[in-house]
Amino acid sequence: MMRVAAAALALGMGLARGGAVVVMLGTGTPNPEPERSGPAVAVIVGSRAYVVDAGPGVVRRAAQAARLGFPQLESKGLTTLFLTHLHSDHTAGMPDFLLSPAVTGRTEGLEVYGPAGVAAMVRDLMRAYRVDLDIRLRRGWEPSIPAAYAMRTHEIRKDGVALKTADVQVEAFRVKHGALRDSFGYRFTTPDGKSVVISGDTTLSENLMRYAQGCDILVHEVYSANALKRRTPEWRRYHAAFHTSAVDLGRIAARVKPRVLVLYHSLPFGDPPDQIVTEIRENYPGPLIFASDLEVIR
Ligand SMILES: [Zn+2]
Ligand SMILES: [Zn+2]
Description:
Layout: H1 2-16, E1 20-26, E2 40-45, E3 48-52, H2 58-67, E4 80-82, H3 88-91, H4 94-104, E5 110-115, H5 118-128, H6 130-139, E6 151-156, E7 160-164, E8 169-174, E9 184-189, E10 195-198, H7 206-212, E11 217-223, H8 225-228, H9 233-242, H10 246-256, E12 260-267, H11 274-280, E13 288-290, E14 296-297
Parallel strand pairs: 3-4, 4-5, 5-6, 10-11, 11-12, 12-13
Antiparallel strand pairs: 1-2, 1-14, 2-3, 7-8, 8-9, 9-10
Helix pairs in contact: 10-11
Bound molecules: zinc ion (2 copies).
One zinc ion is lined by residues 85, 87, 177, 201.
């Protein structure tokens, strides 16, 4: 925690120069590890926060990051969400992200970017909470801001620019997540040329390597190839098609040459986490961070 606080304090200088800072809100997987929230990564650009994925715990981790020096992640700043794909480990925090900030400080609506199906997911979640919405917005006595409940969805159908503002360009690109065809990674680029790439869930993807080439920060999922050997043939088949082994991630990083490789959504399957680093090191000698929740990468 000391390390996170120190990094947060150092942030001021970074923002003065512009550019993007990454705050790991959740580094976990479907496994309910208490110290790792579900997948969620915040990219902070100037006064704004862009959150990629809404795994369980995302809103509380954002509040924790706000206390550590990132006011962009207070409730009122949770206005832009990108989803890599619609698997539950990346979206189980969605109702929290849609609704809690609207009660606790958000004054404008929420923009949600994601693959086909995201509009229906948001619409159905709002419908599922109709009792709550009715009492908060209409029949209760609670002071409320209706605009904060306005949900605008943007479905991404192909590679390319998903959002462009004066401060940042966000490109979406398809990755290979087995049978889940509509899965994207994102590349954030700021006007000073700083770039952050987030893999989402994918097996080795040529398209990711194209978009990530020479980026500053590559946040990538990973599993241990060695530990997977102990699992059943069904699980081995699944992981090979849906996720990236540490040996392959070493190959990816060796080709992409990021300024720093950041591991999240990691599956050591009971092996010591160091095993993953050992496998990556077979092919990639460069800078590497095995991220914890609330880790700050600049
Ligand atoms: Zn997935
Ligand atoms: Zn996942």
